[in-house]
Design goal:
70% of the residues lie in helices and 0% in strands. The protein has four helices and no strands. It is rod-shaped.
Length: 91
């Protein structure tokens, strides 16, 4: 009995098994992403804010007009009150 011949045959069978296993494509679970309704609402809100203008022309235009005409007047007391409120809020 020749042992070497048996090992060569066994190696031939083992190598073909490995090749077959490599060709098999295994399908496993796939990753999925689900966005909640709150997340979708946030995306819509972000898109709306991004599309909106940074300048509120309905507020700015009357102020520009008053400054250009020289009729815009700021009360010193009003300015000081707002400045102090802002300072207190920052503390």
């Amino acid at each position: 009995m020749r042992i070497e011949a048996y090992t060569q045959v066994q190696q031939a069978y083992n190598s073909s098994k490995v090749r077959r296993e490599q060709n098999v494509v295994r399908k496993g679970p796939t990753d999925q992403v689900q966005i909640s309704s709150m997340g979708m609402d946030m995306q819509v809100a972000k898109a709306s804010v991004k599309a909106a203008s940074d300048i509120r022309y309905d507020v700015v235009e009357p102020l520009k007009k008053a400054i250009n005409e020289g009729t815009y007047d700021v009360s010193g007391e009003s300015f000081a009150d707002k400045l102090l409120k802002k300072y207190e809020a920052m503390r």
